Amino acid sequence: MGSCLYGSVHLDRCRPSDVDALTAFLRDADLTVSGLDAPSVRLWVEWDALGAIVGSTGYEISDDGRHALIRSVAVSPARRARGRGLSLARFALARASEEGASMAWLFSRRSGAFWQRLGFEVADRGELAAALADTHQVRLFQQTGQLEREVAWSRPLAAPEGLRRR
Length: 166
Ligand SMILES: CC(C)(COP(=O)(O)OP(=O)(O)OC[C@H]1O[C@@H](n2cnc3c(N)ncnc32)[C@H](O)[C@@H]1OP(=O)(O)O)[C@@H](O)C(=O)NCCC(=O)NCCS
Prior knowledge:
The chain is an alpha+beta fold. It has one domain (about 5-165): 3-Layer(aba) Sandwich (Aminopeptidase). Helix content is about 30%, strand content about 30%. It is built from five helices and eight strands; from the N terminus they run ββαβββαβαβααβ. It has helices spanning about 20-30, 85-100, 110-115, 125-130, 135-145, and strands spanning about 5, 10-15, 40-45, 55-60, 65-75, 105, 120-125, 150-155. The chain has an eight-stranded mixed β-sheet with strand order 1-2-3-4-5-6-8-7, with helices on both faces. Bound molecules: coenzyme A (COA). Coenzyme A binds near residues 84, 108, 110, 113 and 114.
């Protein structure tokens, strides 16, 4: 899937040539930028009319394909609080489910209430690290010690109500 419309959000698959711009966008949003060009990482971006990234979403899939680590969900500050974040997150959940993942996980210290809106519950970070041991984000967080400071969240991907659009 190269380009698609999800709700009111127009998303393009992130190309290798977009990675530098996405890295800058995610740094501004204070999100992890490790592994953005890895084959296991699926990313989509939303561009504005001037060619700037204004939204992003994605996930990294485990080697066995059963677990998805949702990551890089961000909306530019000027566009927040209009439902775009939920649309971007739902898009990643739907794509991960289509790809065959049955469980979604993520790390979030600051945005728990946002993820609870999508059916996520606090999870055991050790379980997350075991299910997604091969992902860049888990490896990075283990190497840096950040794993111990993180809050893990998970939800099954089979529950259809969380995937409904607003
Ligand atoms: C988190 C983020 C993606 C939300 O984007 P957004 O477009 O403002 O989100 P929405 O408008 O869809 O918000 C939906 C609901 O979640 C709530 N919400 C939004 N951001 C939140 C946050 N950071 N913490 C808690 N709740 C939040 C909103 O209040 C809203 O609830 P309401 O409908 O009851 O008012 C955005 O704030 C962002 O880019 N933050 C920086 C990056 C980040 O932290 N990403 C998440 C980790 S991957």
